[in-house]
Design goal:
CATH superfamily: Malonyl-Coenzyme A Acyl Carrier Protein, domain 2
Shape: globular
Helix content: 55-70%
Number of strands: 0
CATH architecture: 3-Layer(aba) Sandwich
CATH class: Alpha Beta
Low-confidence stretches: none
Structural class: mainly alpha
């Protein structure tokens, strides 16, 4: 699990540090999971960041779900291969579908890590683009005088 988190954290750092990400109107901060894990207390969020924003939440939810699954494997003393072999299906609700796809696609533990990190990179970009779209729609709705009181970026996904 730790190796997955380290690899995933590095992937998010690379993607969010790219010039393309930094020039986005939705860019808020580099996603430095490793630094956050080293410097923050449990339950704390990095100062000034709204982690519920889709820019952060899409990749971080995927990371958390995959890490929780790997922790389950370690705690239960079972392998990914044996769980897959004894499973008929994988289910997920909302963004949990993404983790279910990773689970069901990976035939080995190594594939789970590789596919998980690859999908995590994708989720970063999907979150960034969804945030961009939301901000554009929000501006347009305000200009049109539409009521946007309960609007949220997840609706743009």
């Amino acid at each position: 699990m730790r190796a997955f988190i380290e690899t995933a954290a590095q992937a998010l750092l690379e993607e969010s540090s790219s010039d393309e990400a930094k020039t986005s109107v939705a860019f808020e901060a580099v996603i430095d999971v490793h630094s956050w894990l080293q410097s923050l207390e449990v339950g704390d969020a990095p100062a000034g960041l709204a982690l519920d924003r889709v820019f952060f939440s899409m990749p971080l939810l995927t990371l958390t779900q995959c890490a929780n699954y790997l922790n389950f494997l370690e705690t239960a003393g079972v392998s990914h291969e044996s769980v897959v072999k004894n499973s008929a299906t994988a289910l997920g609700h909302s963004q949990g579908v993404v983790s279910a796809v990773i689970f069901s696609t990976a035939k080995t533990a190594q594939e789970f890590v590789e596919i998980g990190v690859s999908v995590l990179r994708y989720m970063f970009w999907q979150g960034l683009r969804a945030q961009e779209t939301y901000q554009l729609l929000l501006t347009q709705y305000k200009q049109d005088g539409k009521n946007i009181e309960n609007a949220g970026p997840m609706l743009a996904v």
